[in-house]
Design brief:
single chain; 255 residues; mainly alpha; two-stranded antiparallel sheet; 6 helices
């Protein structure tokens, strides 16, 4: 009788603790209201912004009609480490939502076991007996969400998943935009390098002509020096452009 009293007392204490834990759920969040004017003097009529961070932007880079740029952007989703990290966080957030929702439904656990026993020996003339025992057990449990703890957990997980989805699309768009800017800046440097190479070729011809005129006594020494300066300055600019292009090429490789 004393053992039974202790058991009942323990169960009552456990039920009280579970009830207390359920009462710890805070109040429902209510967004505070903010008084905003209908219009501003400078801007006129305006409307409240509606962020759509999780909406995909589409393949906007295809409007440039550059097949090489298209191929590079397609590798963003495959190789960019920031995008892959954001995608992993999004998958984790979705898994947390599924885990939180699972608490709303009953859980069922089961186990099965089989035992085989026998008596006697093979040398005995009468032999022995063999018995097979099979055990199957099922256990179902469900906790009523009286205080809204599970629903609050689901809402929190869903908000986290939405934030992760927005972070993923933002990271993807940022990488795509940075890649497009680096790519076209690289193309601009290619055009500049080609222009400088063409100018260097013309300045080389001008230097050769000036040196011939100086050798013939037609031109002065200062004309030769000026032609050499123009040529060397153009070559130096071409080297600087080549360094900038290499940096952009490495940046694109990192993306």
């Amino acid at each position: 009788m004393k053992l039974r009293f202790i058991t009942v007392k323990t169960l009552a204490l456990a039920a009280a603790l579970a009830l207390l834990d359920g009462c710890m759920v805070g109040p429902k969040y209510i967004r505070p209201s903010v008084a905003t004017p209908a219009a501003y003097k400078e801007a006129g009529d305006w409307k409240v912004a509606q962020p759509q961070d999780a909406v995909k932007r589409g393949e906007w880079w295809e409007i440039f009609g550059d097949t090489q740029l298209n191929a590079l952007v397609e590798q963003i989703n495959i190789s960019n480490q920031n995008v892959r990290f954001a995608e992993a966080q999004f998958r984790q957030a979705r898994a947390l939502v599924q885990q939180a929702r699972a608490a709303l439904f009953p859980s069922l656990t089961g186990s099965a076991a089989a035992t085989r026993s026998g008596t006697g020996s093979s040398t005995s003339s009468r032999g022995g007996g063999v018995a097979n025992d099979y055990n199957l057990s099922l256990d179902a449990s469900w906790e009523a969400d009286v205080w809204g703890r599970v629903r609050s957990s689901v809402a929190l997980s869903m908000a986290g998943a939405q934030a992760s989805a927005a972070d993923l699309e933002t990271a993807r768009l940022s990488a795509q935009a940075e890649l497009a800017m680096d790519y076209y800046q690289l193309r601009v440097l290619d055009a500049q390098r080609q222009l400088l190479d063409d100018n260097a070729a013309e300045f080389q011809k001008s230097l050769d002509l000036t040196q011939n005129r100086y050798a013939s006594g037609v031109a002065a020494k200062v004309d030769v020096v000026q032609a050499q300066t123009q040529l060397q300055s153009t070559k130096a600019q071409a080297i600087d452009v080549g360094v900038q292009r290499a940096q952009l090429e490495h940046a694109i490789a990192v993306l």
